[in-house]
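Note to self: keep these together.
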Amino acid sequence: MSCPVMNTMPSELSEALAEFGKLLPSCKKENQAVHDCRVTVAEASAFNKILWQFGFGISHCVEEVKAARECHDQRNTVSAKIMQHCLNGDHQQLAKQYNACLNQNNGDSSLCKPLLANFLDCARAYASS
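Structure:
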């Protein structure tokens, strides 16, 4: 029995989506703060870990996780607004259109690049407004 092959995303589409991702708010700082906090907790002394069992110093990283979640929520909101403006809210529309274009043009991606360029132009314009 063979293993089914997963469809891969065309590299041009993947690159366009990576460019789109750069237009969204970055949560690197917040993610790093969560990571650093979790490392600090993991490396805590045995004495601190004993205190935690009695309720001292619990709720580790709550503020860091809250800030990261707020950032990711903001990122999702901005993404949804751009998708609504540029793709009528259908986040799969770009991939569908691009794949249909490739199929119609025998895989010639040069004929389909304007679809990606138009989306990125729209996204850039909306993100900068």
